[in-house]
Amino acid sequence: GKEDGYDVWDLTQEEAVINNITEYNGYYSDRVGSGDSIYSAAAMMVWSDSNMHTRNTATENCRTSGRVDPVRQKKEMFEGTRAAQADEATIHIVGHWSYPEVTDDTYNYFDTDTVEFEEDHTYEAFNDTQLKRDPTTKTVYVIGSADVDKVELYRIDGETETLLGTDEDPDSTFIYSFENIDVTQGDGVIAKAYNVRGEEVTTDEIERTGEAATLRVTPHTAVAEGEDGEAVSDWRADGSDIAYFDIEVLDENGNVCALNYDRIDLSWSGEGTFLGGYNGGTGAGCFQNTQESAGLSNYFGGMKDGVSTIGQNYVYAENGTNRIFVRSTRNAGEFTLTATMDGLLPVSATITSNAVETVGGLTTQMQSELEPGVSEPPVTNTVDPMKPLMLNKLTIDWSNVKTVTEEDTRVYYEVQLNGEPLTLSERTYLGTMNTLFGPIYEILTAAQTAGASGFTMTYNDSVSPVTLEVAKDGHTYQYEENRNQLLIDNTEYTECVDTPYMEGDTFIANLPLMLGYAGIRTEIDDTNHVLNIIVE
Questions:
Q1: Which residue, 182, 192, 206, 166, is CA-closest to 76?
Q2: Tens digits of residue pLDDT in 362-401
Q3: Burial of 209 (0-12, 13-18, 19+ CB in 10 A)
């Protein structure tokens, strides 16, 4: 559900970006031209604040899983993805280098209990047991593009650089790992990337930040081309145009304070409607806020002490930043936003809206204009695969060529009915997203023969595409050959990930999904690779 602390998963941004890059490598390694062309194209979701295919059971999952957050601020996953997909040599150090010293008040988090609900379902819930992480043995990750061959990690101490580790064997093509790093030491960290020739091609550096010293307020509006060809503000006084201000908490060296979560108070004046900002994320189990610790349980759920920050005259910094929105009025003029934080001087920024011409109450200016025609194709990675240099002519002795049979790497499961093995025409295997795929029609037929009731089944393999429909309690659930959507009452409901298909004369599809809708209970033993169909 959406209760604080009970979201479907609880990942840090570091864990999320590593998971994301690992999954991206699945596409990259099997792309066209790789020799194993499973994919001919790919689309990458940019989760922020939307309900993508019902994945929004717990709202914060979408917000935390995104390349950007709900107000489109870039997150670690954005930077990691940018590095992995870059056409030129690029690296990105995941995280920050502003870890505090180990004290009673730092590196604390709550343990979790496994809670059972319904039948055969569990979730992790925070308890009152406080645990402590060890920042002296942390693994630091660097994401590198495909043309990076080696990464070195150095700690910066003043003018001195100390080598912490070298990785020449990345995980999932892009992930360079450096274990047992004491992240509480040093003034910063720098990663250096090298190509296959041993040449340094790029670097990434993070400095340790100090205490908050000032705020920086940066306005953003639409832009247009001025008379001299320069970019000028195009914030329009049409009563609907949106502008926004980025607010950053800086230390004395001008670096964003990565661990600042303090309150930012806001005031404004002029021609604009203040819309405010947003705080999001699940806060149960965390101790990050340094200024106000009381009532923190719902702080990162968009609320603080039960009050949402949306539309309020304050927000809280998240990793040292936040974003404030304002809508223009129909009167052209200046709008000034002032941000203050306890102990810091106020900082202001001003933007000016431009008058909009109207005729009979209607504007002659469109909110945006796009040139007609087909847009440019998306940027793709154009790094050519490495090929050996054939300096001498190669002659192959075909009489000594050995043919090797391709290895079947699928994980197969035995299907049982009430504990007894079922004889089926095709084997059941573990597909994408750890979902079992097998001869669904044969299994449903066997279950009905054994006494399963409460549903009817219609299987049509005389036409193309082949369909299988289960009816239960006034609803229908349908699989269709080569269609990766389960239809509920003839409406697309959820993706099947691996599409149903015909293996000879046998219809293969997601088993647990359809068996569940038919009201048939299953037990899955992942240790012994057994799927047991239970008919009582």
A1: 206
A2: 777 766 555 666 666 666 555 555 545 445 555 666 666 6
A3: buried
List the beta bridge partners of residue 202.
193
By the 10 Å C-beta count (0-12 exposed, 13-18 middle, 19+ buried), 252 is classed as exposed
**SS3 for 117?**
strand
Cβ neighbour number for residue 328 with a 10 Å cutoff: 25
Q: Which amino acid is at 282?
A: T
pLDDT at 522 exceeding the cut of 80: yes
Q: What is the reported pLDDT for 283?
A: 40
Q: Tally the residues of the chain.
A: 536
- Kindly tell me the sign of the dihedral angle through the C-alpha atoms of 242, 243, 247, 253: positive
CA pair distance 251, 493, nearest whole angstrom = 49
- Per-residue pLDDT tens digits for 452-485: 999 999 999 999 999 999 999 999 999 999 887 8
Map tokens 């992790």 to a residue: 124
Please report where in the chains the tokens 């998306």 appear, as a residue.
378
- Do β-strands 121-132 and 138-144 pair in parallel, antiparallel, or remain unpaired? unpaired
Spatial separation of the C-alpha atoms in residues 245 and 349, rounded to whole Å: 8
**Beta strands 160-167; 358-359: pairing state:** unpaired
DSSP calls for 226-275: -TTS-EEE--B-SS--EEEEEEEEE-TTS-B-TT---EEEEEEEESSEEE
Please give the structure tokens belonging to residue 311. Answer: 């539309």
Closest by Cα among 377, 257, 370, 278 to 320: 257
**Percentage of the chain exceeding pLDDT 70:** 76
147 Cβ contact list (under 8 Å, min separation 6): 88, 89, 195, 201, 383
State the DSSP H helix or E strand holding residue 61, giving kind and residue range, or none if neither.
Answer: helix 59-64
CA-CA-CA-CA torsion sign (97, 257, 187, 200): positive
SS3 357: coil
Q: Kindly report the pTM of this predicted structure.
A: 0.64
From residue 262, alpha-carbon distances to 115, 277, 291, 380, 456 in Å are 33, 14, 6, 40, 59
Torsion angles phi and psi, residue 101, rounded to 5: -70, 160
d(CA 249, CA 213) in angstroms, rounded, equals 8
Q: Is the peptide bond before 170 cis (omega within 30 degrees of 0)?
A: no
Pull the structure tokens for residue 337. 């936003």
Q: How many CB atoms lie within 10 A of CB 263?
A: 16
